[in-house]
Design a protein that fits this description.
By secondary structure, the chain is mainly beta. It contains two helices and eight strands. It is globular and about 35 Å long.
Length: 149
C-alpha cells in the first residue's frame, strides 16, 4: 500500500481511525460472503488470512443446508482436495500484494466443477467488498464478495 497524504492521515486520526486500522480495512484479510452469480444471494463464507505476505482463503460455511456435506468430487485425481469436504477446504492460495488494494498471482478452486483458475482480488468500497477475478488466460468471471465481519 502506498503512503497516505499527511492531511488524510490527520483527518483519520481526528476521526479516531488509525492508519493501521485503515490498512486493515483495505486488506482482504477477514471473512467474506461469496455471492451466487445467478441468485445474488450469499453462497458461502470464505475466511482470508495472511501468512508471511501470502494470502489464502478457506471455506468456513455453506449457506445452503442441502450442500453442507459437499465434497470436491470433481477435483482432479492428483489434487489432494479430491473427495474432501468443501467446508474447511482452502480454495484460494498464493495471493500476494500487486498494487494498491490488489492481490494477485494466486489460484482459486471452484469446488463445484473442480477447476482451478488464476486469481486476482481487489478490495473496493473502502474494504466493504472485494472483487474476486478467476480466469484462465483471458477468459474468466468476476464475483463481488461482501465483508462478513
Amino acid at each position: 500500500m502506498t503512503s497516505l497524504p499527511s492531511h488524510f492521515c490527520v483527518a483519520l486520526l481526528a476521526a479516531g481511525i488509525s492508519t493501521g486500522a485503515l490498512a486493515d480495512l483495505l486488506s482482504p484479510v477477514g471473512a467474506w460472503n461469496t455471492i451466487d452469480d445467478e441468485t445474488k444471494k450469499p453462497k458461502s463464507v470464505v475466511r482470508i488470512v495472511e501468512k508471511d505476505g501470502v494470502y489464502a482463503g478457506t471455506v468456513e460455511k455453506i449457506f445452503d443446508p442441502a450442500k453442507q456435506d459437499s465434497k470436491c468430487d470433481e477435483c482432479a485425481g492428483d489434487d489432494p482436495r479430491k473427495g474432501k469436504p468443501v467446508i474447511g477446504m482452502t480454495i484460494l492460495t498464493g495471493l500476494k500484494p500487486n498494487g494498491d488494494n490488489v492481490y494477485a498471482g494466486g489460484t482459486i478452486l471452484d469446488p463445484a466443477n473442480g477447476k482451478t483458475y488464476n486469481a486476482k482480488v481487489t478490495v473496493i468500497e473502502g474494504g466493504k467488498k472485494l472483487e474476486m477475478r478467476g480466469s484462465i488466460l483471458f477468459i474468466g468471471r468476476t464475483q463481488t464478495w461482501v465483508r462478513a465481519e
